[in-house]
Input
Amino acid sequence: MQTYKAPLNDMKFILRDFINSESNSLLKNSDIDLSDLEMILEEASKLCEEKLLPLNQSGDEEGCKYENGNVNTPKGFKEIYREFVDNGWQGLTVNKKYGGQELPYFMNMFLDEMISSSNMSFGLYPGLTSNAIDAIEKSASDEIKDLYLPKLASGEWSGTMNLTEPHCGTDLGLTKTIANPQNDGSYKLSGTKIFITCGEHDMSKNIIHLVLAKTPNCPKGIKGISLFVVPKIIPKKDGSLGERNNLECGSIEKKMGINASPTCVMHYNEATGWLVGDLHKGMKAMFIMMNGARLMVGVQGLGIAEIAYQSALNYAKERLQGRSLKGSKNLDKDADPILVHPEIRKSLLKIKTLTEGLRGLMLWTGLQVDIAKKEKDKFKKQNADDWVSLMTPILKSFATDVGCEASNLAVQIYGGHGYIKDHGIEQLVRDSRITPIYEGTNGIQALDLVGRKMPLHTGRLLKAFFHLVKEYIEKNSFNYNLKDFMPSLTKSFNRLQQVTAYIASTGLKDPDEASGPASDYLKMFALVATAYVWTRYAEIAFNKLNNDPNGFYLAKINSGKYFMTKILPETGSIMSSILSGAKTYNDFEDSHFDSAFKL
Ligand SMILES: Cc1cc2nc3c(=O)[nH]c(=O)nc-3n(C[C@H](O)[C@H](O)[C@H](O)COP(=O)(O)OP(=O)(O)OC[C@H]3O[C@@H](n4cnc5c(N)ncnc54)[C@H](O)[C@@H]3O)c2cc1C
Output
């Protein structure tokens, strides 16, 4: 059975102890405090545990149904969407001016994690809307903002992003959709977009598509792309619904997972749209949306890992098979729970420590989004912005890989009962599998890290991270409490610095030497950043041990020890692999790929 209780203890620990001081200063001039934020988390947990989780398996089995251009969502989805938006969840972090509650961005991360654990398919509907709000707010004219944002923030209308075309996925420069300017300042868009999440459905009154397209005679490739807002139903000036636009959903994909979220083929047949941002600067505007979306997808990975962990743990406590090799633990029963077996314990601890470590890194990054938005001091603002830019590809990629690995480990812990459908564990494998693919594949995230973020501002982003960790190491090297943490943090950090220097120097001579190990490098970076988080957790936890009635802080320390000794050493093998160069694959003869057969 899929088992899920929102990890509120851990979330509150992060809120109060881990990001405490800065979140307090963020809240300084507002009418809410930390206990309000905790209460909101508790309300969100009820919604997710009691309403969304029960629809997760049924939504997967029933899926979305396409009929004559319409898409019907599975039973119960419309009702829960209504409840979700009526209770103001869609506008949680949106500017008050547009009807939102203007809570810190990191609160959306907590909410998204709970939603992704309990019903990832459902989360895509409000998730895409949040990203559309972000892009419109940051790039569109006041007229567009005033017309669309209140309706999107209330959830009355929903949003989508339209990049992909049949021949154009990663390489958006190949976009063929055309936007012809009209005398009244609008555009007529024609073309076909594929794989559009929630492109058509029956939950909201209108669907607002953000579409990438090219204007006639625009510059070639990516430089010619512009972004347009194209509503399904054209709103009148007062926001009421007017004429149906010339666009339709041609079909929905049959796919591996997230079956309760429709993946649509969208046809634009001279559909009316309006420019968002500047002409030919569509990628800039879209990147605003994509960066938010990338963090959101990372949070999906985290959410899936959490439900995989809880389900597997529950099963491991109940499933009786074999005996502990150290002597029976359960003499009144015929066998011991599988939790006694070391292999099972290791798998569970792997998921637990990766998930909890990543949660801190993710929320710390969410906090930096808020600081970058609100901070007046230019230097602090830039620092926060740099952190977000650096961590976005790392978190998107690593957290989604962790989500996939965690759900596979959960299936393994369930054995055959995980492989069959009854318990809903194979669904987690299927649902999570899209996360390393959409919003820019994880391979592309790694190239972004190595090719763009590493050299950006002559290495300013990386230097800031290195400086932070180095300073922490110097300050805490002789901290007795951290004696099981500091040596491994220091060792892995030195490895990361060595590998960074290697990639930066060899990459200058041969770009394939830098792009080749990009994914390995990203993983190594993520492991070191997570180790830094675990060390800080341990530092906090040691100071709380004298008031730890439920053992939360002791568990934190012991979980951290597991991470530092069993997970972090992988940085050693990654380093060896990277330092051995990229020739074995880059110079491998193309004709040798099929040496064992002939295609
Ligand atoms: C369920 C689902 C939902 C989606 N939702 C949306 C949506 O809402 N809106 C939208 O616009 N799109 C959406 N997509 C599309 C998704 O973002 C793309 O599938 C993804 O960007 C990859 O594009 P592609 O599938 O064409 O793969 P390709 O671009 O063909 O890539 C294939 C492989 O080659 C690698 N590759 C490609 N180019 C390079 C390069 N230059 N260097 C190194 N490696 C490279 C990739 O990493 C990948 O492994 C969705 C897709 C799915 C399946």
In short: The first strand starts at residue 65 and ends at 67. The pocket of flavin-adenine dinucleotide is lined by residues 161-164, 169-170, 195-197, 255, 263, 434, 437-438, 440-441, 443-444, 447 (CB under 6 Å). Residues 197 and 512 are 34 Å apart (CA to CA). The mean pLDDT is 96.
